[in-house]
Amino acid sequence: MKKKTNFVLALLIAVLATGFTSCGSDDDNGSSPEMSGAETELMGKLQGTWEFTSGKETAMGYSFTITPSTLTEFKNQMRSQGVNIEFWDQTLIFNGTKVNDVPYTLRGTQLILEGMEEAVEGFSFTVNVGEITETTLVLHEVIAMAGNEIVADMKYKRK
Q1: Which residues, at least 6 apart from 149, have a Cβ–Cβ distance to it below 8 Å?
Q2: What pLDDT, in 10s, does the model give residues 112-144?
Q3: What single-letter DSSP state applies at residue 126?
Q4: Kind and range of the H or E element at 32?
Q5: Strand partners, 110
Q6: Could you give the C-alpha distances from 145 to 16, 77, 126, 154, in angstroms and in order?
């Protein structure tokens, strides 16, 4: 059971790291699509610093609780494999149209990071603002690859 759990965690780390590594476009003209009033309001609510408190992931029929220390462990494992994760972090800093220096926009409640929509065959990734209050942010993530889904709810508290 331990080997299967480690395999699922390794797969989860690889997929999440891939999803959150920003590629960006070399021909970006700096413009962003028009946002609705609700999207502009949501962007305003996101501004500031958010600290990760807990998360729950479900992958391949298994559920995992993610703590701040396991999140750090995941990032360190990925860095040791040469994968730089620019977004998925213990601290999210929303500053204007960037989060942790990665440009983003909103489509409804969907958080779209620069480079995230680039086509990768058999891979899709979405992040939605599942809940936001004055003190709590929950990001709902769905990653689909090769017919498998990884679903995560990552909870943050305003710092």
Answers
A1: 59, 142, 143
A2: 988 766 656 677 888 999 999 999 999 999 988
A3: E
A4: none
A5: 107, 128
A6: 11, 21, 12, 20
Q: How many helices (H) and strands (E) does the chain have?
A: 3, 9
Q: Which residue is it, tokens 């620069």? A: 114
Tens digits of residue pLDDT in 47-106: 999 999 999 999 888 998 999 988 888 778 877 877 665 556 789 999 999 999 989 999
Distance, CA of 12 to CA of 39 (rounded, Å):
30
Non-local (6+) Cβ contacts of 125 within 8 A are 19, 116, 141, 142, 143, 144
Q: What is the DSSP string of 34-90?
A: ---HHHHHHHHHH-EEEEEEEEEEEETTEEEEE-HHHHHHHHHHHHHTTPPPSS-SS
Residue 67 Cα distances to 3, 71, 83, 155, angstroms = 20, 6, 21, 10
Q: Report strand pairing: 123-132 vs 98-99.
A: unpaired
pTM of the model: 0.75
Question: At how many degrees (to 10) do helices 2-20 and 68-80 cross?
Answer: 80
